[in-house]
Amino acid sequence: MYRLYNRMNGEHLYTTSENEKDVLFQQHGWGYEGVAWNAPDTGTPVYRLYNAGLQNHLYTSDVNEVQVLTAKHGWIADNNAQPVFYSGGDIPIYRVYNQKLRGLHHWTTDQNEYAILPSHGWQQEGIKFYATTLGAPIQTQYAQSVPVVRPVQPIPLPTAPVEPIQTETPYYPNCKAVRAAGKAPLYRGQPGYGPHLDRDGDGTACERTATE
């Protein structure tokens, strides 16, 4: 299962499709985080739903949940309503939920991550799937942006040097990097903001605490 991360809205996406992974990573700005876990070829079917209004994907093996969400709550079944992967094996995959972040769900095989996230506004929902083996440690990488070259009209000399146009959104791995760049605090919607910096989910990242 490939794991990707959208730093603009905080969503993680999981897919077995190498093509989908490559397109999102290379053309749409998603960060590629490696293989999260290995799924079996057969087992309990897992379906993927998408809600355009919430910009949110949901993975579930509950057929009744699929029917209710698609019929009454505006969700659409991906992959022509066919399973996107199968659950099976001995390694538990935990699910957490954050109502403040557009109702995002997150799935992890890391028991430490599962234990820590409730202190950052996430609600534990237990074991939802199983994997055969673990993937590699998560390391987020982004494709290099190709500079956009625009035609420039001739102008009389002399002329001042043209500042290069920045086309990349800044990425800060932690609040230390934000403060080092002089950008703290960051607010939701500002370049570089991400839910990994805003652990309490209040829309303000890297604000200084009373002890700092």
Please give a structural write-up:
The chain has 212 residues and is an alpha+beta fold. It has 2 domains: 2-134, no CATH class; 170-212, no CATH class. 15% of the residues lie in helices and 30% in strands. The chain has helices at 18-27, 63-72, 111-116, 175-180, and strands spanning 2-6, 11-15, 31-35, 37-38, 44-51, 56-60, 76-77, 85-87, 91-98, 104-108, 123-131, 133-134, 186-187, 204-205. Strands 5, 6, 7 and 8 form a 4-stranded antiparallel β-sheet that branches. Strands 2-1-3 form a 3-stranded antiparallel β-sheet, covered by helices on one side. A 3-stranded antiparallel β-sheet has the order 10-9-11. The protein is globular, with a radius of gyration of 20 Å. The two termini are 40 Å apart. It comes from Streptococcus zhangguiae. Residues 189-212 are annotated as: Disordered.
